[in-house]
Each structure stands twice: as C-alpha cells, then as structure tokens.
Design a protein that fits this description.
By secondary structure, the protein is mainly beta. It is built from no helices and 11 strands.
Length: about 130
C-alpha cells in the first residue's frame, strides 16, 4: 500500500510564499506520476498541478501558472509544491496524489486518474 504524507502548510499573508512537501512511502517512486489538488472552503476539490515520473513534464491549472511550481526528488521519494505570490483565494486543504504508471491515464487533471491520496495539509492565506 502506498502512503502519502503532506507537510509545509500553515498561515501566510497575501503575497507570501510556502513550500509544500509530500513524502511517499513506496519502493519505486519514479514510476508514479504525482499531482497536487486543493479544496477551498465551500468548494469542490480542484486540480493544481502534476509532474511526470521523470520530472520532465509538468502541467498547471491555468489560474496558477507563473505562481506555483511543482517539482520532485526521486531520491527522496518526495514531491514539492512551491507557492509564490499567494492570494486569499489560495486558501484551502492541499492534497498530493499518486498515479501508478502501469495504468493508462486519459487526463491527469482529473482526480479520478489517481490511485493514492494523502490526508492533506491546510494552507491559509490572510488578506
């Protein structure tokens, strides 16, 4: 069973930055595509970003391009989300997710594509 544990959330003022981490308990981390999703208060969970197994392919929600950066360190079994220029609307619970490459993906922006999920970490941006 793959386990994911997010960390790095907290309270930050608008315009500030946070870096989230997701530690993955798995033998071969590099065979998983990793994604970040978030759930704002009163809203459904939405796509944030994903990164391919090699780290060479990344994709972001349109509204987050230029502010958020996803990266991974396969030697540490960890995926990161660097969040800059934070806005109040970025407030929410952030989740990391893993998609096993053994199963064919249609759309990695779709949360249904992912096989494993963390419990989430709270990010609160004050205005």
């Amino acid at each position: 069973q793959v386990q994911l544990v997010e960390s790095g959330g907290g309270l930050v003022q608008a315009g500030g930055s946070l870096r989230l981490s997701c530690a993955v308990s798995v033998r071969t981390f590099s065979i998983y595509t990793m994604g970040w999703f978030r759930r704002a208060p009163g809203k459904e969970r939405e796509f944030v970003a994903y990164i391919s197994w090699s780290g060479g392919n990344t994709y972001y929600a349109d509204s987050l391009k230029g502010r958020f950066t996803i990266s991974r360190d396969n030697a540490k079994n960890t995926v990161y989300l660097q969040m800059n220029s934070l806005k109040s609307e970025d407030t929410g619970v952030y989740y990391c997710a893993a998609k096993f490459l053994g199963s064919r993906a249609i759309d990695l922006m779709n949360q249904a594509e992912y096989d494993y999920w963390g419990q989430g970490t709270q990010v609160t941006v004050s205005s």
